Amino acid sequence: MYDIIIAGGGPAGSIAAERATKNGLSVLVLEKEAYPRDKACGGGVSQKALEVIGGIDKGLVEREIFGARIFLHDYQNFTGRLGSRVAITTMRRDLDHWLVNRAEDSGALVHDEDPVKDVTFSKDCVEVVTPKNRYRSRMIVGSDGVNSTVARKSGIRTRWGSDIGLCLETEVELGDTLVEESVGTDITEFYFRGMWGYGWVFPKKDRLSIGIGELISQVHKPKDQFMRFVRDISLQKKIDLEDRITRINSHLLPLGGFGRRIHGERVILAGDAAGFVDPFIGEGLYYAVKSGEIAADVAVLAVEKNDFSRNFLAGYATKCEDAFVSDLKSAMRFARFAYGDLDRFLRILRSDRRLFHEYLRTVRGDRTYAGFNRWCALRSPVTFLKLVSG
To answer: Tell me: the pLDDT tens digits for 70-92?
Structure first.
C-alpha cells in the first residue's frame, strides 16, 4: 500500500512526486508512455514556472526569451522586450524526463509504459488497475492530462464543455543560422489571425516550434488550417518550411481553469486534468507545476491526519484558489476583452509599448492578471472599463 499514487508523470505529477517523497510519503508514479516521450507543446516555460521548479539544468535551455513579436492580420508587426528573462524554450521530452528523474532520485517509484486503466474507491483505499498490475494507495492524484482517466473513473468529470481548445504543432529543423535569421535568438512570435486563438513560432537551438491553437468549436479542418499557416509563414520568412515537416502533433487544451470540481473522496486533480490553463495565451506549465506542488502538500497533511475525505481534500481547492485560480478569473476577463475586439486590442498594444511591457511582466510573473487589469484601468479608464467590470 502506497501513501499516494500519481497517475501521469508530466510536470504536475513529477513535481508532486518529488515534493511528497521529500516529505516522507511513499509514492508511485504511473506513466502511460515510455520515457523520454514526446509532448505536443511549443516548449515555452515562463520564468514563474521555472521558479516553482527551482531552476533547471542549463543543458535543457534551448533559448532564453526576453520578449515577443506580435503580427497583425496583414503581417505588420511590432516587438517588445524586457531587460529580464520572460521565459525559456526547451524540448519537452527532455524537460519532462529530467523532472521525473529528479522525482525518482528523491525516492519516488516510477513505472513508465504502465497506463492507468481503472480506478476504484473503497472506504479504506484506492485500487488502481494497469495492464501490468494492481496497486493500492491511500489516495490518488490525477495528473494524467486533459483526457484524465482518474477524473472520469472518480466521477469528478466525464466530459469537457465548450471551453476546450485544440493545438497543432510541429518542430522544423533549420540549423542555428536560419533560426536566428528567421526569428531571432531571444523573442517568440505570435500571429493573431482569428477569434480566440493564435499561431506561434518559438525559436530553439536548431529548429522552430510552429503551432496554432483555437477554440475547438471554431476549428474546421484543423490540419488544413495548420498547413495554411505554415505556408503563410514560409512566404513571410522566405523559407520552405512545409517540406521540412515530418510530423504534426495535436493536443486538447482546457481553457479557463476555474469553476470546475477538482477533488473528491481520496482523489485530487492537478495540471491539465484539473483544467488549469491561461485562457489568453494557453500556458499550462506554470499551473501544472504549481498545482503539483500544492497537491503534494495537501497529500502530506492528509496522511498525517489520516483524513482523505472530500471535506478535508477541499483544502486543495482552497489552496489553489489562493495561489492562482482567483487570478485565472482575472485572466479570463482580460481574454474576453482582448479577443472580443482583437483588432482594437492589438492596435492599442502596438501604440502603447508600456502596456505591452506590462503584459510581458505579467507573463514573466512580476504581476498578477488582477494587478495588470487594475493597471490597465488606471492607465486608460474608458478603454478598459469593460475589462475590469467583467
So the answer is: 998 888 899 999 999 999 999 99
Spatial separation of the C-alpha atoms in residues 193 and 212, rounded to whole Å = 10
Confidence (pLDDT) at 348: 84
Please give the radius of gyration of the chain, using alpha carbons only, rounded to the nearest integer. Answer: 21
The residues, ordered by sequence, that sit 6+ positions from 352 with a Cβ below 8 Å of its Cβ are 379, 380
d(CA 140, CA 295): 10
The residues spanned by each domain of the chain are 2-57+90-161+255-328, 64-85+162-254, 331-389
Q: Which residues, in sequence order, are CB contacts of 383 under 8 Å at separation 6+?
A: 348, 376
Q: How is residue 83 written as a grid cell? A: 531587460
CATH topology of domain 2-57+90-161+255-328: FAD/NAD(P)-binding domain (3.50.50)
Domain 64-85+162-254 indexed as CATH 3.30.390.30: no
In this prediction the pTM is 0.93
- Amino acid symbol at 363: V
Q: Where are the beta strands (DSSP E) in the chain?
A: 2-7, 27-30, 44-46, 63-65, 67-71, 77-81, 87-89, 109-111, 118-121, 126-129, 134-142, 164-173, 187-194, 197-203, 207-215, 249-254, 263-264, 267-269
Q: What is the pLDDT of residues 22-74, one digit of tens each?
A: 999 999 999 999 998 877 778 999 999 999 999 889 999 999 999 999 998 88
Q: Residues in the chain with pLDDT < 70?
A: 194-196, 380-390
Hey, what's the cell of 385? 472599463
Q: Provide the Cα torsion 243, 249, 254, 256; round to 10°.
A: -30
Cα dihedral 14→20→23→25 (10° resolution): -130
- Helix (H) / strand (E) containing 150: helix 149-154
Grid look-up 540549423 returns: 175
